[in-house]
Design brief:
- By secondary structure, the chain is α+β, with helices and mostly antiparallel strands.
- The protein folds into 2 domains: about 150 residues, Creatine Amidinohydrolase, Chain A, domain 1 (3-Layer(aba) Sandwich); about 210 residues, Creatinase/methionine aminopeptidase superfamily (Creatine Amidinohydrolase, Alpha-Beta Complex), CATH 3.90.230.10.
- It is built from 10 helices and 19 strands.
- A 6-stranded mixed β-sheet has the order 4-3-2-1-5-6, sandwiched between helices.
- Strand 16 and strand 17 form a beta hairpin.
- Helix 7 packs across helix 8 and helix 9 runs antiparallel to helix 10.
- The protein is elongated, with a radius of gyration of 23 Å.
- Bound molecules: zinc ion (2 copies).
- One zinc ion (ZN) binds next to loops.
Length: about 375
């Protein structure tokens, strides 16, 4: 009983609260199934399984049965995860499958009373998956049982509960701490990969389970590549370096970008582009509040870069949702009509890229609050010359 987790609770209390959180999420999922007229849902994506049950194993299928009032859940996994499933998915019945987890889940599903339909996500299930699902159920039900139900769980995941907000605050704070550390070690002549390795080692030592995506260190001309992963290129004596990275802590991803200048003589153009991207980023953050469309937030950033003559240099969307996965809903891009709601966590990351010359991107994670936005990654973002 000495272990205290990030919510400041003892492990046992923590488990009880976790169980309540997962059953609340399953209740929300069941309500959504009733609304869609589906009596069950087959969940095969690891992040969705984790969200609804706590199970983190790599092989599993979760079946939710939505009754008129309650919800039942059964997790199918294999023998490697017997102990893990018991602890992690404490509120869920578990079947250790002898053959494919998908086949066993479908056989079981077809035997349950009152199950007329079962939703599955057509964006992640392959044709082969659907074939084997059908093969596992009696011939008479092959046509009627399975129905495409797009993004049921990912939609729920767009609104973070208080547990998730706590976890993401911690992940984002660790990101900021690591950025501070980077500022003390970065220097001309070291390779991008060495800098990335330093960051990743420090992240692991600080408790991160891993990085939420491949670390981006893009220096000099390479900063003009929006996704310049770290290479053997040496950091320049004079030039911009874009650092875009994230950690996974307690299952949740962080994501932030800062662009710093190495050396003493930045050009007026480098300063001008940096200031324009910073203004675009801050304007977009200001625009974040409930009831505003994500397209409006994108436009807030885009219009600033447009007036600086950099519209064409901003070649991607302004941001994305983040949570158990590094990219999730909502999308924050041009023309998107989705409304922001309190509890969403999105990134705001405009950039400007001048091919063959340099690029700048600045990214924060932002929580949509009841009346605005809270920046979860408050590391300084004013022009930084090292
Ligand atoms: Zn990023
Ligand atoms: Zn991002």
């Amino acid at each position: 009983m000495v272990y205290v987790n990030f919510l400041g609770l003892f492990q046992e209390e923590h488990r009880i609260i976790e169980r309540m959180i997962f059953s609340k999420r399953r209740a929300r999922a069941a309500a959504e199934l009733r609304r869609l007229n589906l009596s069950s849902l087959l969940v095969a994506e690891p992040a969705n399984i984790r969200y609804l049950s706590g199970f983190t194993g790599s092989n599993g299928v979760l079946v939710l049965l939505a009754g008129r009032t309650g919800v039942r859940a059964r997790l199918f996994t294999d023998g490697r995860y017997t102990a893990q499933a018991k602890t992690e998915a404490a509120g869920v019945s578990v079947t250790i499958a002898k053959r494919s987890v998908l086949t066993e889940a479908c056989v079981w599903l077809a035997q349950q009373k009152g199950v007329e339909s079962c939703g599955f996500d057509p964006t992640t299930a392959t044709v082969a998956t659907l074939e084997s699902m059908k093969k596992a159920v009696p011939a008479g039900r092959r046509r009627s049982l399975f129905r495409p139900a797009h993004g049921v769980v990912p939609r729920l995941r767009e609104l973070k509960d208080s547990y998730e907000i706590g976890a993401m605050r911690e992940a984002a704070a660790l990101g900021c701490q690591l950025y501070e550390h980077l500022l003390t070690v970065i220097e001309a002549g070291m390779t991008e990969q060495a800098l990335a390795a330093t960051l990743e080692y420090a992240a692991r030592m600080a408790g991160a389970e891993g990085m939420s995506f491949e670390t981006i260190v893009a220096s000099g001309e390479r900063s003009a590549l929006p996704h310049g992963r770290a290479t053997q290129a040496k950091l320049p004596r004079r030039g911009l370096v874009t650092l875009d990275f994230g950690v996974i802590l307690n299952g949740y991803c962080s994501d932030m970008t800062r662009t710093v200048y190495l050396g003493s003589a930045a050009s007026a153009e480098e300063r001008r582009v940096y200031d324009a991207v910073l203004a675009a980023q801050m304007t977009a953050v200001e625009a974040v509040r409930p009831g505003v469309t994500t397209g409006d937030v994108d436009e807030a950033a885009r219009s600033v870069l447009r007036s600086a003559g950099l519209e064409k240099a901003f070649s991607h969307s302004t941001g994305h949702g983040v949570g158990l996965e590094i990219h999730e809903g909502p999308r924050v891009g041009a023309g998107q009509k989705q409304l922001l709601e309190p509890g969403m966590i999105i990134t705001i990351e405009p950039g400007a890229y001048l091919p063959g010359r340099f690029g700048v991107r600045i990214e924060d994670m932002v929580l949509v609050t009841n009346n605005g936005a809270e920046i979860l990654t408050p590391s300084p973002k004013a022009w930084t010359q090292l």
